[in-house]
Amino acid sequence: MKIRTPAAATAGITEPLRMLSVAELPTTSGTFRAIGFTPDENGNEHLALVRGPVRRAARVPVRIHSECLTGDVLGSLRCDCREQLQASLRALAAEPVGVLLYLRQEGRGIGLANKIRAYALQDRGYDTVDANHALGFGDDERDYRVGAEMLRALGVRSVRLMTNNPRKLEGLRRYGVTIAGRIPVITPPTRFNASYLLTKQSRAGHWLGLEPAPAAPSNAEIAREVIPGPDGAADISSTPEVPPEPRANRAAG
Length: 253
Hints:
Elements: E1 19-26, E2 31-37, E3 47-51, E4 60-66, H1 69-73, H2 81-93, E5 98-103, H3 106-109, H4 112-123, H5 128-134, H6 145-154, E6 159-162, H7 166-174, E7 179-183, H8 194-204, H9 219-223
Parallel strand pairs: 4-5, 4-6, 6-7
Antiparallel strand pairs: 1-2, 2-3, 3-5
């Protein structure tokens, strides 16, 4: 039986997200500006980590990372989420400009409790896709409207998306984000997540390079919108200013 996490009292509110707060955030990977936003219609608060001046910048490296408490925080070995997050932060810290959006879409959008229910089914032999279907969900319930709104608020004109997931490219295009290219985020499989990664590749179309693997499109093909998406995706350069970095910390950004 499908069980949805109850929506917050703000459900039904669809005003565009706005930036609320900015602070320097030193991490083990490097120093970022952490930018908090107004809650979305479900009351979820999303976070942007920003490197350098991204307003009106084109071809900005962007990682959109969906929350994974079990992996990101607890170090679960069932998935590759923590490894992808850390690899993305290290890569962005080495760039003059870049953005990581941390979206509160736990369990590919089904919520934490339902993710644990899906894990229980996987322990009985279901793969990650069939487990979601058995609970009444699609294999990926995430939506990237919030991510697109955050990029608009930041003023990013076009992105080089750090992803292995074609649906993420399609999802952002659907909301008017200009995709200029793709940066793979490949992490080596382990004995704990190898089956999970093979399922993502074979059944969800992720470009992971595992054998046997279909060829991923080139950046030129992605920029020409060979991957399905609406024609003439809107440029998102007409956006409000990003709050400036604190004067004392600008050199660290």
